[in-house]
From TrEMBL:
Keywords: ATP-binding, Nucleotide-binding, Transport. Transmembrane segments: none annotated. One of its GO terms (molecular function) is ATP binding. This is ABC transporter ATP-binding protein. It comes from Novosphingobium mangrovi (ex Huang et al. 2023).
């Protein structure tokens, strides 16, 4: 069965006199538990689609479903509730709160979740059991991003959405972050959608959607997704 189904998704950004068609009739079906990569040139619509899938934004037209719920039929409050319950976001910059420890940063999310993990268990899952009491400034970039992954998975979201999660990291550090994403995917059965230029991530994906000018130009299927080392 499907996590997401989208039909004829259009997005037009209107800024003053000019309008940009960021999505031009995107149809999509993302199976539950899939690891999916969005690839394509800057400005081709990847972030726009990710934000719409995650309930941060709405399409101008078209319909979008998450499992049996039509997201495009929800009001703002219901859409926010969907996002809080089901979506974990990971961005390029970790957005940790500097005055809180790693554990406290994760606890911010678990305190308001329905069925959360223990913050320390989430940090252990990303290999940071011994960093729980560290503040962000005491952690390397890769470790901070792994705290962000722990924070995203600690509420046990149905879906993990990642926008260039390794974009700010060197390649060896990026690999560790990838391993934690793959681990979350394997152990929690989470559907994962990742925007990335990182070839190491693309080979781990079940499928790659190639974007061009607001459309899915090509779909690539990996018969044998590579396990991270
Ligand atoms: P990508 O993630 O592939 O780089 P985006 O989805 O960010 O592409 O952008 C798609 C197009 O929409 C681009 O032309 C971009 O400039 C435009 N765009 C994105 N967000 C906004 C916005 N908030 N307001 C106006 N235009 C936007
Ligand atoms: P990784 O590549 O695994 O993210 P690094 O090799 O960059 O980690 O860092 C190794 C160790 O050095 C980390 O465990 C961290 O505690 C410490 N460290 C790295 N960067 C900083 C920093 N800017 N401030 C304080 N400690 C740091």
């Amino acid at each position: 069965s499907l996590a997401f189904r989208g039909e004829g998704l259009e997005k037009v950004y209107q800024t003053g006199e000019t309008s940009v068609r960021a999505l031009r009739g995107v149809d999509l079906a993302i199976p539950l538990g899939e690891m999916l990569v969005l690839l394509g040139p800057s400005g081709s619509g990847k972030s726009t689609l990710l934000n719409i899938i995650g309930g941060l934004d709405r399409p101008t037209s078209g319909r979008l479903f998450y499992r049996d719920t039509e997201l495009t039929a929800l009001d703002d409050r219901e859409l926010t509730r969907f996002r809080r319950a089901q979506i974990g976001f990971i961005f390029q910059f970790y957005n940790l709160i500097p005055s809180l420890t790693a554990e406290e940063n994760v606890r911010l999310v678990t305190d308001i979740a329905n069925n959360p993990m223990e913050p320390r268990d989430a940090l252990e899952l990303v290999g940071l059991a011994d960093r729980c009491d560290h503040y962000p400034a005491q952690l390397s970039g890769g470790e901070q991003q792994r705290v962000a992954v722990a924070r995203a998975i600690a509420k046990r979201p149905g879906v993990l959405l990642c926008d260039e999660p390794t974009g700010a990291l060197d390649s060896s550090t990026g690999v560790r972050v990838l391993e934690t994403l793959e681990r979350a995917h394997a152990e929690l059965g989470t559907t994962v959608v990742i925007i990335t230029h990182n070839v190491g991530i693309a080979v781990m994906a079940h499928r790659i959607l190639h974007f061009r000018d607001g459309q899915i130009a090509r779909v690539e299927t990996n018969e044998h997704p590579v396990e991270p080392r």
